[in-house]
Specification:
The chain has 2 helices and 14 strands, in the order ββββββαβββββββαβ. The protein is mainly β.
Length: 201
């Protein structure tokens, strides 16, 4: 199965939920991929015309504007001037947020497309969600977010959702033929893709 052919149920896309703390899990682009460590040090909260951002050891204030269609603009980003530790992604985080375009919330995860075609940031309400990124055949990027009983996959702009089995649920009788769990499906979906281990990864 190629990375373009994963079969799963899809959540409807919604604009970003405001007054929620969204933790930056990672980013994809044609140039490079990023995975944050730890995501709890990088977050965004949008509240009407105001946004508060934690960029590692610095706080950032910004003006925000959103639309019902999911557009998000952040402007006048003003940060404190603390010197963060080596390897900090604070400056990168702030720079990427100044390029936001469309927000696409799927359950408790969020994809934000950026002004550069093919570039996107990925967020979760849970900072412990696991983020992986891949380079697929044809140069397309794939992002995979595993969170609780759900796995979310984006192949470029195409979204897929896999409901993971609840291990505490009562076992059902075995059906005819082999059964794939969500980890098997995710592995098959990324079979034609090469896992990226770039900055922060």
């Amino acid at each position: 199965m190629s990375c373009a052919n994963s079969t799963s149920n899809s959540y409807d896309a919604q604009p970003i939920t405001q007054k929620q703390r969204w933790y930056w899990l990672g980013s994809t682009s044609y140039a490079h991929h990023i995975r944050t460590n730890p995501p709890s040090s990088y977050w965004l909260e949008v509240d009407g015309e105001r946004a508060v951002i934690q960029a590692d050891c610095n706080k950032v204030q910004a003006k925000s504007m959103t639309t019902h269609e999911g557009r998000l603009w952040l402007s006048n980003l003003t940060a404190t001037k603390a010197s963060c530790s080596a390897g900090s992604l604070g400056t990168t985080f702030t720079r990427l947020l100044s390029q936001t375009q469309i927000t696409e919330q799927r359950g408790q995860v969020l994809r934000v497309s950026l002004s550069q075609y093919g570039d996107a940031m990925f967020f979760g309400l849970d900072p412990t969600a696991h983020f992986s990124s891949y380079r697929c055949e044809g140069g397309e990027s794939m992002a995979v977010i595993s969170q609780a009983q759900h796995t979310h996959l984006w192949l470029g702009d195409q979204y897929s959702h896999i409901a993971r089995e609840d291990p505490s649920a009562q076992q059902k009788p075995e059906s005819d033929g082999p059964k794939l769990d969500s980890d098997d499906i995710a592995a098959a979906a990324t079979a034609a893709c090469r896992k990226h281990t770039g900055p922060g990864g």
